[in-house]
Design brief:
Length: 75
């Protein structure tokens, strides 16, 4: 099954990421690195930050989120 990477695009992606992180936390709260609040805070705390440039999502062919990356590159 092919896996595709794409940039974060909008509020729909934010909801997908929230659901993804919540499902990971439900599976193993002790080993979850991210919290939903970390995601929201990270995206909105800095008005210069653009998640469309710095967040990538990996999905399978049906569009199920498999993972994501948060890139903090110096400009």
């Amino acid at each position: 099954m092919p896996i595709q990477s794409r940039p974060f695009s909008d509020e729909n992606d934010l909801q997908v990421l929230k659901t993804f992180i919540s499902s990971i936390m439900k599976q193993d709260m002790q080993r979850s690195y991210w919290h939903v609040g970390d995601l929201v805070w990270g995206i909105y705390q800095n008005t210069i930050y653009d998640p469309r440039k710095n967040v990538r999502l990996w999905e399978n062919e049906p569009g199920e989120l498999l993972g994501f990356a948060w890139i903090n590159a110096k400009e």
